[in-house]
Amino acid sequence: MSNAYIDKFPAEAKVVKAAFYSSFLALALGGVFGVIQTLHRTDIYRFIDSADYYTVLTAHGVFMVITFTIFFLVGVFTWAVTTSLDRGVEDIRFTWSWVGLMTIGTVMAGVAILAGFVDSIDISASVLFTFYAPLQAHPLFYLGLVLFVVGTWVAGADWFRSWWAWKKENPDARIPLPTFMVLTTMIMWYIATMGVATSILVFLLPWSLGWIETVNPLLTRTLFWFFGHPVVYFWLMPAYLLWYTMLPKFAGGKLFSDPLARVGFVLFLLLSTPVGIHHQYLDPGIAEGFKFIAMTNTMFLLLPSFLTAFTVVASIEHGARQRGGTGYFSWLKSLPWRDPVFAGMALAGLLFAAAGFSGMVNAGMNINYLVHNSLWVVGHFHLTVGTAVALTFMAVSYWFIPQVTGKELWNRSVALIQVVLWFIGMTFMTNSMHRAGLIGMPRRTAEPQYTGFEFETAVGSVGELNAQIALGGVLLTLSLVLFFANIIGTAFGSRSDNLPDNGYAEALSGSDDAPRVLDNLKLWTAIAVVLVIIAYSLPLMSIVDRGGLFGPDITAFPANLESVRFLAFAVEHLGTAALESAGTLAWNTLPEVIR
Amino acid sequence: MSQATEEPEQLQEIGHDEYNPIGTLALIGLYFVILVLLWLFVYFVEFLGNDPTVIGAVLTMVGLQ
């Protein structure tokens, strides 16, 4: 009998497994669209119409950075809360309800995007990941996103519920570190999603349903980025959680400092949201001063980032020293590099360090102008979400999937080759993307080849850059194939008793050394909200003041669709019915809650 | 076939007081040096390769105007 997660929490293991498999399905779809666009834009192999490129790009973006990352996150967070509180979820039906909401949301948004490939269906959502107006998607897309986000809200409520129940039984205990990380991340997410919820529910959805004529594009963009920067931390925080609480264990050591980890997560809660305007340095409708404030806040984010770099590396080094490592650098050789879980996560961290540099360039107001909207930015986020997050998730899956299925990993060597291949592929792809951005090559462009104009490279050539990007893309696709072979091979294996124990790393300096105030979630929430109000109220007021709440008269693209009218009618009726039943439910349950 | 994570072979137990993360200092120091060199390189890319893109006076930068 092993002591794996599935042995202790069989019902929760099913939820976590469902979340992981959903995320892998999105990863597979996203991967297919990724290689298509890589080969298309570099003009190495084109078999789709260039107009369809934007549908491919939307699918790649949404499936990768919304579905893959967030489904994986809810799996990790459920595991983290149940493991560290050592208790199952309060009500498994409640838990499945948010999995259901997120799944329905994904299917709706996914269908809307993929229908863009079929001319005979007048549904499309080729609006890219950022869905900037006047690009307009079918209402199904926005409704799907709403359901998906509501699903994550309910998931957060589920974890808070577990914590409250645990706190009743352990009134004086410190919040276990993994649960602390989950709760702070979710508070950040609740604040951040207010922006996108407002943007969709008040403006974009009614606009796509034809209830309002126009929107103010700058306002919806700003609301998007209100959510759009913290969402990158929503991708990163589960990876950070794994780096802090699992990587030291895989390295054979202990977490260097529990208090430092808590400080890091509190700082991310405070600073993730009031920085979104740094994505809009080139938006003409926002005053320079507001951008300058966003830049200052952004630079403060370096603090928790470097805190993390120090703590995680020091924890790994502790493992290496316990394994007999010595010297300034030669301790690195004592690390378990043949373990795919450790190697994948460590290589992900290494490329993340490179992303730190390109991120600082993005964050600086004046040098941002040099790289804005160029392929540089694409290179940057393929290092962050595409490697730091994605490679960490894939590598740690080799530990997680046996934990939640009770089956041994199919092939360890294939797993090691897979993570190394991802690292090599990303190195090719991203270094060339950064360089292509420096010579001004645009992002989000199907055919960045222009007659009568040639990009001038200081070193190498455009052909060489394109070749590297395409080679990288092909290696990444290969890596994905190996990943799925391993996951499928594992899923079809038989139950094993020879599994590692479930658990997370102990700390050298534990939670007793952390000041009590760090666990005061109400205080940090209040400060986070105040910072958001300071950073956003004046810019939003000035945007509304200039362009109006519903903006100047803009023409939606593509033009309004026939099927929308029926959907608008249906949504109106369903919405009224849902509100009514929610009202009745609240009316019936409130007295009980109060009692 | 085998477990994804083999139990790491631990040769010694190092406690909180006897551990000095000197290797971490060395690695992060190296990273810092690389960052400084890259920043120097940015000077050539940004200011010698193109016209300066800093806009407005100091006052407009901080939004006082």
Task: Note the main attributes of this structure.
heterodimer, A: 595 residues, Cytochrome C Oxidase, Chain A, 18 helices, globular, B: 65 residues, disordered C terminus, respiratory chain (chain A), Cyt_c_Oxase_su1_BS (chain A)
Give a quick rundown of the structure:
Chain B: Keywords: Membrane, Transmembrane, Transmembrane helix. Chain A is mainly α and 595 residues long. Chain A has 18 helices and 2 strands.
What does this structure look like?
- The complex is a heterodimer of chains A (595) and B (65).
- Helices cover 70% and strands 1% of the residues of chain A.
- With 595 residues, chain A is mostly helical.
- Chain A has one domain: Cytochrome c oxidase-like, subunit I domain (Cytochrome C Oxidase, Chain A).
- Chain A has a two-stranded parallel sheet.
- The radius of gyration of chain A is 24 Å and the shape is globular.
- Chain A starts with a helix and ends with a helix.
- The mean pLDDT of chain A is 94.
- Chain B is rod-shaped.
- The longest helix of chain B is centred in the middle third of the chain and has 27 residues, at 22-48.
- In chain B, 48% of the residues lie in helices and 0% in strands.
- Chain B: Keywords: Membrane, Transmembrane, Transmembrane helix.
**Average residue pLDDT of chain A:** 94
N/C terminus separation of chain B? 69 Å
> C-alpha Rg of chain A, in Å?
24 Å
Main sheet attributes: strand count, strand direction, barrel closure of chain B: none
Give the amount of beta strand of chain B, in percent: under 5%
Return the CATH class of chain A: Mainly Alpha
Q: What is the global morphology of chain B? A: rod-shaped
Which fold name corresponds to the CATH topology of chain A? Cytochrome C Oxidase, Chain A
Keywords (chain B): Membrane, Transmembrane, Transmembrane helix
Transmembrane segments (chain B): 22-45
Membrane topology (chain A): Multi-pass membrane protein
GO cellular component, one term (chain A): membrane
